[in-house]
Design goal:
It is a single chain. By secondary structure, this protein is an alpha+beta fold. The protein is 36% helix and 19% strand. The strands form 2 sheets. It has a two-stranded antiparallel sheet with strand order 1-2. It has a two-stranded antiparallel ribbon with strand order 3-4. It binds zinc ion. The site of zinc ion (ZN) has 7 residues, from strand 4.
C-alpha cells in the first residue's frame, strides 16, 4: 500500500513538474513583441524620417516614394 502511495506521489510530482515546465514555456515566449518593427530611415533629399517600406532606395540612399512630398530642406 505504501508503494502505491509512493508511486502516486511520484506521479503527482512529475505532473507538477510538467505543468510548471509548460507554464514556463508559455511565459518565456515573447508576448507578440513587435520584433519586426520597421526600421526608420531618413530621406537623403529632404531628411524626413519614414518607415523603410515607405522609402525607396536610390543608389544606396533612401528617398521618399512620392517625389511631390520630397522637397529639399530649406
Ligand atoms: Zn524626401
Amino acid at each position: 500500500m505504501a508503494r502505491i502511495l509512493l508511486l502516486l506521489a511520484i506521479g503527482f510530482f512529475i505532473w507538477l513538474l510538467f505543468r510548471g515546465f509548460f507554464k514556463a514555456q508559455v511565459s518565456d515566449a515573447p508576448p507578440t513583441e513587435p520584433t519586426e518593427a520597421e526600421n526608420m530611415v531618413a530621406c537623403a533629399r529632404c531628411g524626413v524620417n519614414m518607415p523603410r517600406s515607405e522609402a525607396k532606395q536610390e543608389g544606396g540612399k533612401f528617398t521618399c516614394l512620392d517625389p511631390s512630398t520630397c522637397k529639399h530642406a530649406p
